Amino acid sequence: MPSGPPAEPPEELTSPLAYEGVWRFTAPALEASVPQARHAVRDLLADQCVPVAAAIMDGLLLIVSELVTNAVRHAALLSPQIAVQVTLGANWLRVAVEDDHPYRPKALEADQGDLGGRGLWLVKTLTAEVGGKCGVEHTRSGGKAIWAELPLTPPATSPPLLL
Prior knowledge:
There is one protein chain. By secondary structure, the protein is α+β, with helices and mostly antiparallel strands. The protein has helices at residues 11-14, 33-47, 54-75, 119-129; strands spanning 21-28, 81-88, 92-99, 133-138, 144-151. Strands 1-2-3-5-4 form a 5-stranded antiparallel β-sheet. The mean pLDDT is 86.
């Protein structure tokens, strides 16, 4: 049996992939920022050649829309700017929407006749369906960041996302 220190893993296993990193952009807390944020995230993933499955991409873009919409509708008074941060790992991605409003929302199931109120519930549901996770964190500014972390490909046992 050979002795000595364990062999180092090959460099390709320890080096970050070309698309790994963190990107952050800000936008005014206006309705027009919702599609702009969605397109910015989609374009970033395409530009970085991230191998994200189509089902994950569809859910992710809906999550971005919901989170930015919530920030615009509920935080704009105290947060005229919002921030969107995308973090990419080897097999996962995380999107966070940050605002300066201190209120931490809760995901509620709305009644069938309600026109709104399902945004965070939808984010939680989409995230859970693909084995991801989501949450809310306080920021240094006293606001919050609502985030969702998703795998780049759905688990083999995951049902297809129906949007």
